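Folding problem:
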Amino acid sequence: MAGSLRGQDSGSTAAVTVIKRALELESESRYPQALVCYQEGIDMLLQVLKGTKDVTKKCNLRKRISDYMDRAENIKKYLDQEKEAGKYHKQIKIEENATGFSYESLFQEYLNETVTEVWIEDPYIRHTHQLYNFLRFCEMLVKRPCKIKTIHLLTSLDEGSGKEQQSSGLEEIRESLRNHGVQLELEYSSVIHDREIRFNNGWMIKIGRGLDYFKKPQSRFSLGYCDFDLRPCHETTVDIFHNKHTQKI
């Protein structure tokens, strides 16, 4: 079907590429990625339709758009059924030195106005850069569209020289969150190993390295020091699940 669009004006070239990729992903049963490509391709085709004057071409475009909308809707229904049954699973592999994986880029798809409570299980919220990582994650949560009320953090206690820094840092974050109307519940465990984040809208994200998957910047004035989409990452795997009823850690 994508090939039949090639007769359209040059503005449809990008749309053809994206739709072709959507069809490939669908054939490989990579439905979440296919849905994203279909949605993007359909938006592009709608823009092409607006600029098309020829009546025959407009009719052909409308038919193609309708077909792709049907495919996208079928995929969406299937994914919704998988979520309802607790079978949804998506995996993202972050390659060594990859960029474009800030917390916003990674989590924004799963955050909406229904998210009011978050559970974080991460044994390594101890050192300065790890505390800053947790702070950045909290900053993302308090922004719209979330309506966060409570954040639960389960981590391990630093028994060494960094104990006071960890304690004071988390207390400062707790106080700052309180000023934004958010309660931070802290709990420590000496046997914690798993790294897991749960939102009360049913999404659960497991990151192999937890929140600490960014590499140290080359310098204080290098790109990526402030914008974490430009910060190189360590190699890790992100597994995303959906459960109808998310249980507390």
User: Anything to note?
Assistant: The two ends are 47 Å apart (CA to CA). Residues 89-242 form a domain with the Endonuclease; Chain A fold (CATH 3.30.870.30). Strands lie at 89-94, 117-121, 150-155, 183-188, 196-199, 203-207, 236-242. Residues 12 and 48 are 6 Å apart (CA to CA).
